[in-house]
Design brief:
heterotrimer, B: mainly alpha, 11 helices, C: 6-stranded mixed β-sheet, 33% helix
Chain lengths: 272, 231, 217
């Protein structure tokens, strides 16, 4: 009896230590990415592929652009992927980020109800289209949340020389997918990235009405967090992630990603 | 430190009478108080009937109410969304993304709380109340009202509890409200937005307001208990 | 003497135990009865059954000439029979409101209600307590208010359950004085109690409840 009890308790202690050691043993990359990437579904393809290729487990946090960049700026994640160039460059300039690498691009489009009360269907000039929407006094839903989409939308309004507001301009603080659903419900216009729109096609009853304007360019980039600023950061795995994301394997996945048979992500002109 | 600075800014915003901030607070109060006004009378009636009448299915309803007490609010939002969406059965009403939809959702969320408290209150009432009322010639309705008045502190405690549950819930409000600025953005959905923007100052300001509400409820309940006893 | 309330028999059992097994009984109009009996003999239960607060097995129940089926007393009968608890419950409002409660329930409004309530308040001698809530009343004061609350409705039958059981001294004397008044005013009363003084009031008929049977003493 005493012999059995001793080896049993030894076994329990060993098991306990092993359990405690687990989180330390497994490598984990803390990654933050914006809603748009999640809503389009691209991350569901990329992340598992990276995990398989590298053996690194990814802990993914999705949030608004402002939020995920804040995570990076505070050193709470190891790397961040978003689509507001100016903010990403600020991250690097402030020393919180190492270097910005463009990873993919697509474009925004203006979606709206099939009846198109503002009459913007087929227009290529996004700024003029927004002006028409504004003057037609029809509902427009904005992301209103400092996201990449919202930032782009604000740029366009500024280019149009307009201050959006009034009862028809709704500032909804929710993600792109939800804003699309709302626009569908209310038969309103909205600015949306091509990938999310494709992912939600058919569900909202909206149609892509305005596209092709060079100003609707939407570039995604990855920034690794600076270990010199934040010593606790998993810089090694972040570096591996950045390398992988800009490798030919990842690029094939990005360009091969289809929604409803359509390619929605493209490689930037200068990959690095 | 970032947090301290944000908190300082938060209080500055609150006391400067920032219009955006106070609109959010106003919408929160309007929606939650309307929801309570809507849900309280039927809930109290149900609580009374459950306490007083035996009928087939009574125990099932009591169990249901107590189960719904901790029903996830986001699921309430989901069900309401499905009802109110354009293709849904109530789509013609076009209530989605309006304050009315939020009021409906919060009324549903508050209802079980109000009913459960009313039920407990009436069950805890002195049986002599009803007997005295009836003996003095009160109709059943009047006797019911008299009983409810006698246990009003316990019933009101339920109202405060219901208020606490809805003033801070975010799942349903987000789903059926859509967090539209100036229309359906209340305190909890605004906090969600501010955190998603990484803007802590506004989020903290609103969080402080919510905490003040919670504190106010707590104090009010404490006063009630002092006055009415644990009845 | 015309019959106010009568029954052929009245039975009440709690499980196996038969508490009441009463033979034909008549309560006369304008008569006052005291029912004595040990604790647990069923005095309170009897009163409560007659008040319609509890069910019992009754045959041939008649009130004021009209036959009744038992269960709950219908509204018109409830107006004519008032039951006062041994420990009366006063609503958490005021003495004045309590006394006026039954009047309000009957739709008596305005001046008439106020007048009747004033009379009852004066009758019970609680004028100085009219705005006071029940928490601040003594047992004796509560009993007087309860009696006034019943009297103001001019019921055909008062059912008083141990009205002086928890009172002594001045309080008891005051309650007995009020009950004496009721007897003198030819109200029909059925009182369950042990109180010597009440039992020996002039005009009081005395019954004893023992082993489920009522017998006149």
């Amino acid at each position: 009896m005493p012999f059995g009890l001793r080896s049993f308790s030894r076994g329990v202690i060993a098991l306990g230590l092993a359990v405690l050691a687990l989180p330390l043993a497994a490598a984990e990359l803390r990654l933050a990415a914006t809603h748009t990437l999640e809503d389009s579904g691209l991350l569901k393809t990329l992340i598992p592929a990276f995990e398989r290729a590298s053996g690194i487990k990814v802990r993914l946090a999705i949030g608004g652009t402002g939020q995920v960049l804040k995570f990076a700026a505070n050193g709470d994640v190891d790397a961040v992927v978003s689509h507001v160039k100016a903010q990403e460059e600020k991250l690097v300039a402030s020393d919180a980020g190492l270097k910005r690498y463009a990873v993919a691009y697509n474009d925004f489009l203006i979606a709206g109800p099939p009846q198109d009360p503002a009459g913007v269907r087929g227009m290529r000039d996004a700024v003029a289209a927004l002006r028409k929407i504004h003057n037609a006094k029809v509902r427009f839903i904005s992301r209103g949340d400092e996201s990449g989409t919202h930032v782009k939308e604000r740029e366009l309004w500024r280019a149009a020389g307009l201050q959006p507001g009034g009862p028809d301009y709704l500032s909804a603080g929710v993600g792109m997918g939800r804003v699309l659903m709302m626009a569908g419900e209310m038969q309103a216009y909205t600015l949306c990235d091509r990938a999310t729109f494709a992912a939600f096609r058919g569900r909202t009853g909206l149609e892509q009405l305005v596209e092709g304007d060079a100003r609707l360019y939407n570039e995604y980039a990855v920034v690794a967090v600076n270990p010199a600023r934040f010593p606790g950061v998993n810089a090694a795995d972040a570096a591996k992630f950045v390398t992988w994301l800009t490798s030919t394997e990842a690029q094939k996945l990005i360009t091969g990603f289809r929604i409803g048979g359509q390619q929605v992500f493209f490689l930037p002109a200068k990959p690095r | 430190m970032d947090i301290l600075e944000s908190t300082r800014q938060a209080f500055a915003l609150l006391f400067s009478g920032d219009a955006e901030l106070w609109t959010i607070i106003w919408i929160s109060l309007r929606v939650s108080l309307s929801a309570l006004a809507l849900a309280t009378p039927p809930a109290v009636v149900l609580g009374y009937v459950l306490a007083h009448q035996r009928f087939p299915g009574r125990r099932l309803i009591v169990v249901l109410i107590q189960g719904l007490l901790s029903f996830p609010t986001v699921v309430v939002g989901l069900i309401l969304y499905i009802l109110l969406t354009r293709q849904g059965p109530l789509g013609a009403w076009q209530l989605l993304f309006t304050q009315e939809a939020m009021i409906m959702g919060q009324a549903v969320i508050a209802f079980p709380v109000l009913a459960a408290f009313a039920l407990a209150a009436v069950q805890g009432a002195d049986p002599r109340v009803h007997e005295t009322a009836i003996s003095l010639g009160a109709s059943r309705v009047r006797a019911a009202l008299t009983t409810l008045l006698e246990v009003r502190f316990a019933v009101v405690a339920g109202v405060f509890n219901g208020f606490g549950r809805v003033i801070s819930e975010v799942g349903c409000a987000m789903m059926v409200g859509g967090n539209i600025a100036g229309v359906t953005r209340n305190i909890p959905t605004a906090i969600a937005l501010e955190t998603s923007k990484g803007d802590f100052a506004q989020g903290i300001a609103l969080g402080v307001v919510l905490m003040l509400f919670a504190l106010g409820i707590s104090i009010a309940l404490g006063l009630l208990q002092g006055r009415g006893g644990l009845k | 003497m015309s019959a106010l309330l009568s029954f052929r028999h009245l039975r009440k059992s709690f499980g196996e135990r038969k508490l009441l097994d009463l033979d034909p009984f008549v309560i006369g109009e304008g008569e006052a009865y005291v029912i004595t009996g040990d604790n647990g003999s069923g005095k309170t239960t009897l009163l409560r059954i007659l008040a319609g607060l509890e069910t019992g097995e009754i045959a041939g129940f008649e009130f004021h000439g009209a036959p009744l089926t038992h269960g709950r007393l219908p509204e018109n009968v409830r107006h004519d029979i008032v039951y006062v608890h041994q420990h009366p419950y006063l609503f958490h409002t005021s003495v004045a409101h309590n006394i006026g409660y039954g009047l309000a329930a009957r739709g008596v409004r305005g001046i008439e209600r106020r007048q009747l309530a004033e009379e009852a308040i004066a009758w019970a001698g609680v004028d100085h307590l009219r705005a006071v809530g029940p928490q601040q009343l003594s047992g004796g004061e509560k009993q007087r208010v309860a009696l006034a609350r019943a009297k103001v409705l001019k019921p055909r039958l008062f059912l008083l359950d141990e009205p002086t059981a928890n009172l002594d001294g001045e309080a008891r004397a005051q309650a007995i004085a009020l009950i004496r008044q009721l007897v003198r005013d030819n109200c029909s009363l059925l009182i369950a109690c042990h109180d010597r003084e009440l039992i020996e009031l002039p005009g009081m008929r005395r019954f004893h409840l023992k082993s489920g049977k009522l017998s006149e003493a």
